[in-house]
Specification:
This protein has 104 residues and is an all-beta fold. The strands form 2 sheets. It has a two-stranded antiparallel ribbon with strand order 1-2. Strands 3-4 form a two-stranded antiparallel sheet. The chain contains no helices and 4 strands.
Amino acid sequence: LRVDERVSMRLPQPVEFLQVDVWEERAGVFDMTASKTPNKQLLGHCYVPLEPRFNRRPCTWSIVRKDGPGGAAVEVGFLTCKFGLASAPGPVRRLRVVQGSLTS
């Protein structure tokens, strides 16, 4: 399944990774007694490190679910995403006006 979505998030502070919860949504097509609301089920989680080296590059990360023996993580799929990191510019330092650069 390919979903092209653009999401913009404003974070109050820099973070090391982003947790993506992957959900499956199915509508009962042949079940005439089913309700009109689709059935939702959590497939797993994907942890995407927000490091500058992955900035603006498509990267693939594992989607895992804790279904294994003893609660071990089992790989159930992959998430490929491309993200861009942006931050507010820092304060201006050593601002000066050079004589003759301004006209009246």
